[in-house]
Design a protein that fits this description.
Elements lengths: L2 H19 L3 E7 L9 H6 L5 H11 L8 E8 L5 E5 L4 H9 L13 E4 H11 L15 H4 L14 H12 L1 E4 L5 H32 L1
Parallel strand pairs: 4-5
Antiparallel strand pairs: 1-2, 2-3
Length: 217
């Protein structure tokens, strides 16, 4: 056998091994009613022998009753015969938080406040997330939010598996300030109006930086 044929045989064995070891699950996020064959979904399903066109049609039909463009975590379990099962979870925590706060952009600076929510909002979002398969058996809250909120608790890490705390931590990453008191609608409207101006300036600055990069090329 020539060296070239031996090399091709080795590549074929490697490809077959990779296919055999390939995870039969595809975990991704898809917007409700907006599945398409475009990457990364199309290639990921195609590599596993799934008819991508049929999948997109089925997914978009299944999510017809969900608000259009809602970001949904999805797991596709592909069987050996190339049939599949679609597992759709509740919208991502980030999407729920940003929708509740009425914002479209995450924070750019560490101390930037992009929006505000009350603990009531947090609790309602936690209740939604508690229905996810991964959250079965996880308590929504195991302590009084009013007692612990804003306090320096050395044992806070003990509550990592408590859904309310997970949601609060995700809110902090986005820049959403969580407060115990209810939000004043008029004050919050003024805050959002100011935020729109800040975001506009941030986008203009980003555009200037991108333009400057192009000029240097």
């Amino acid at each position: 056998m020539s060296a070239w044929k031996a090399y091709k045989a080795l590549l074929t064995k490697r490809e077959n091994l990779q296919k055999a070891m390939q995870d039969p699950r595809v975990k991704t996020t898809i917007r409700a009613q907006m599945a398409s064959p475009a990457p990364p979904l199309g290639p990921a399903l195609g590599q596993r022998g799934v008819n991508v066109g049929n999948f997109c049609k089925e997914f978009n039909t299944v999510t017809e009753n969900i608000k259009n463009a809602t970001i949904l975590p999805v797991t596709v379990h592909v069987r050996p015969d190339r049939t599949y099962e679609i597992e759709i979870e509740t919208p991502t925590t980030k999407w729920l938080l940003m929708q509740a706060a009425g914002i479209r952009k995450e924070k750019q600076e560490d101390d930037e406040i992009t929006g505000k929510l009350s603990v009531k909002h947090i609790y309602e979002i936690a209740k939604i997330k508690s229905t996810d398969k991964a959250m079965i058996g996880v308590p929504i809250k195991v302590f009084n939010l009013k007692f612990f909120f804003g306090m320096k608790c050395p044992f806070l890490n003990c509550f990592k598996r408590e859904i309310c705390q997970m949601v609060i931590e995700r809110a902090a990453e986005i820049g959403i300030k969580v407060q115990y008191e209810d939000l004043d609608p008029d004050e919050y409207k003024q805050f959002l109006d100011m935020r729109r101006e800040v975001v506009k300036q941030q986008l203009e600055e980003i555009a200037k930086q991108e333009a400057a990069k192009l000029l240097r090329i």
